[in-house]
Amino acid sequence: MNWLTDYVKPRLSKVIRKRESPDNLWHKCKSCGQMIFHRDYVAALKVCSNCDFHDRIGPKDRFDALFDESRYELLKLPAVKDDPLKFRDTRRYTDRLKEARNASGDQDAVQLAKGSLGGVTSVIFVQNFFFMGGSMGMAVGEASSALPKKRLPAKPRSFCFRQRAVPGCRKGFYP
Ligand SMILES: [Zn+2]
User: Fold this and answer.
1) What's the 33 CA to ligand 1 centre distance in angstroms?
2) What SS3 state is found at 120?
3) Taking CA atoms, which of 32, 47, 86, 174 is between 20 and 30 Å from 115?
4) What is the pLDDT at residue 166?
């Protein structure tokens, strides 16, 4: 028995394999199945280099990609009631909201950020599909209307990126 080949080599190989192939090293395209080096996929803003499929991106990726030097300040969302209509489908809306908040760490399905875009102060509104399918609750509406009403500081240029499921899909069309 050789302790170098039987003991040390397998352990060493295991460590080296772990370092060379972490789970997130490759991304599999949802459309064509092509394996893409994860770093290239992120650098291409989650667009497949093989079939040009545009994958969904969340607010952070959007802000990082658009603001100069990826520097920005997240703005506080307008304070709203969670569920003034006391809406309920198969579950209470407030329960869904609580669950999404716990899972994402976000307050609602929208994020606002302010920063410099091409040297011009700008505010970007991003509706987040990853939060309850971009649910158009009161917070999304208030944040959206805050832009044209110029309630945000310094009258910045504003941009809106919407991602959402079909409005009304919580009215009983799916369980
Ligand atoms: Zn593809």
Assistant:
1) 6
2) strand
3) 47
4) 54
Say if CB 61 and CB 46 are below 8 A apart. yes
* pLDDT tens-digit series, residues 16-27: 555 555 567 999
- Domain positions in the chain: 1-55, 57-175
Ion ligand 1: protein residues whose beta carbon lies under 5 Å = 29, 31-32, 34, 48, 50-51, 53
The CA-CA-CA angle for residues 83, 105, 77, to 5°, reads: 55
CA of 43 to the centre of ligand 1 (A): 15
Rounded to the nearest angstrom, the distance between the alpha carbon of 54 and the centre of ligand 1 is 8
Instruction: Show the CA angle centred on residue 56, arms to residues 148 and 141, nearest 5°.
Output: 25
Strand, coil or helix: 113: strand
Residues written for the chain: 175
pTM of the model: 0.68
With respect to CATH, is domain 57-175 assigned 3.50.50.60? Answer: no
Mean pLDDT of 84-105: 87
Query: How far is residue 23 from each of residues 20, 32, 81, 82, measured CA to CA in Å?
Result: 10, 20, 40, 37
The residue that leads in pLDDT, 77 or 72, is: 72
